[in-house]
């Protein structure tokens, strides 16, 4: 194959300005290498691409197709209704409640987990006895299964449960609330549980980011007479930027799609009243339980569209420098 | 759909019939593919909802094994799947992809209508005439337009399970027979500082069942039948049901924060409250005895204090006071299932197998001749009430189908939460019927 390329190439070489045999041969070699590289890329990624197409793209296409039908999952879809399902979703006050709840979780997670994780990570980045233990403890909630966490907090926060007993024991009985039953409180309760569950992930990510901050910079700043706070503010934080932004991105996407903790911790009645529904729980409640399969697919497509646009915007404006060349074109 | 189950049927006769039916394995003369039956080895796949380890699951295993012993050509592969998963995802997906199990759980009502419309089920009308006759009118729930597509193995009406000790302490001498008496009982129970009624509103349906019962009392039997078949909810009695429910909730008979209380299966549920002496009453179906047992800390105490009475009547209302709300479980055969599937279905509902089912205590049997299997006194009173009910209305959410049922339950829950109106329930039902 290589030899054919080489014999063919002098023709190309003739087009080029007075190039000798050597540059031509070098070009030929480079083309072959490029071609071989592409075969390699195709060969190695083909299985992944096939799986991706079969289990991601094709189902997405189907979801969109089904979303255009009034279909209850019995027999093939035949009742085409265009975008009516989408209109119906945005006219349902419960779906709008779900959107609002997702917004609360997205911004609430960023606003609460960010500072906590940063503080804890900075503390745990210093050397002290038992540091590994504390790191481990901070990470435990994240390792627990969502369903376990959901059931655990449901039992703790239930009426007259452990949490209420604790409040009463320390003389704060007046603060006791129906944490999971009050329709105005429940979403904040769930935000708390989600924070507890996922803050460990932010901490571990930031700790990893911190370990990449060169020690020399700290030392240099120290020699210049910078205090610990100044070093964190002017040296560590800016260098931690990419890690923080990646965490924000993951947290945002996770919050938009959050399902399991909400599903387990909050009962169906409270969800169906909109107090604790998220887009994902709304999708399952309507798609499977109300047996509105076409409608459920429409909600899935909306959820996907919102997550996709949010991801694109985030990458465009915040992750731009971090992933330069990968998705955006290289500046200059 | 009056259930006319004669307890007085000569037991010996039924058992003989059962033995004959089981022994000869479908020896009826009107069997078309008779010669082909049990000739070739077949494997039947069977999906049922007794997924949790316990007497229910074990019993189905035994039934499958016994059937295999009778007919060695038939092997049965069982899969027990949790109800919600089975009903909402596994079965619809299997049916849709043309690869269903041969025999599977069927809930009757609106769902079986849809499945028949999609041509998923085997028409067994001519093969199960004797069985249907023995089961009585409750088999109609598994029939569509006069054709039979499935058979029930469990059926019962709902009523109020109560704590006899608490009633005695509160000075309530007899179980309430009218809602006025029920209201009085609630007042007396509050006076001795117990939660009068536990409701698992968190799971929606336990709360919705209160509305169903008010609808049973407000609506005539004809209106209810018409609503089930035509999804016609124009009758003002459906609004009346919500109004009655609202005034009942306003008397505060339920535990605080009921909107987040689960229905069953854990100690904090409404079930758990009744089972562990934290509430005096609970509205629930015939399966409740089994679920109370699993959440009770002291089963012996539970067995001593637990009692049952039918949902009270409302004086001067349009509904039939002897009509009751109920439901059951059944099985159906897939359209292309082998003929042995129907034979197995017939075996499941034969009096002998039904008697064994009753003995597990997981539900009430449907076949005549199985009554003696019901030992528990509370379950016996449910069985008697079921037998003497003039009309049994299938759970409204099942009867109306999942879409209307779900919208209806959501709107009823909103009344419980204090931000819904009786009219909104009817509006939600009408709009869901068009979805």
TrEMBL record, chain A:
Residues 1-23 are annotated as: Disordered. SUPFAM superfamilies: MetI-like. The keyword Hydrolase does not apply. Residues 99-314 form the ABC transmembrane type-1 domain. It is found in: Cell membrane. Pfam families: BPD_transp_1. InterPro entries: ABC_transporter_permease, MetI-like, MetI-like_sf. GO terms for cellular component: plasma membrane. The keyword Transmembrane applies. It is a multi-pass membrane protein. The chain crosses the membrane at residues 41-66, 103-124, 136-156, 185-208, 246-264, 292-314. Its main location: membrane. Keywords: Cell membrane, Membrane, Transmembrane, Transmembrane helix, Transport. PROSITE patterns: ABC_TM1. Residues 8-22 have a biased composition (Low complexity). GO terms for biological process: transmembrane transport. Belongs to the binding-protein-dependent transport system permease family. This is Sugar ABC transporter permease. It comes from Micromonospora radicis. The lineage of its organism: Bacteria, Bacillati, Actinomycetota, Actinomycetes, Micromonosporales.
Automatic annotation (TrEMBL), chain B:
InterPro entries: Bact_solute-bd_prot1, SBP. Coiled coil: none annotated. The keyword Signal applies. It comes from the Bacteria. PROSITE patterns: PROKAR_LIPOPROTEIN. Residues 1-21 form the signal peptide. Keywords: Signal. The keyword Signal applies. This is Extracellular solute-binding protein.
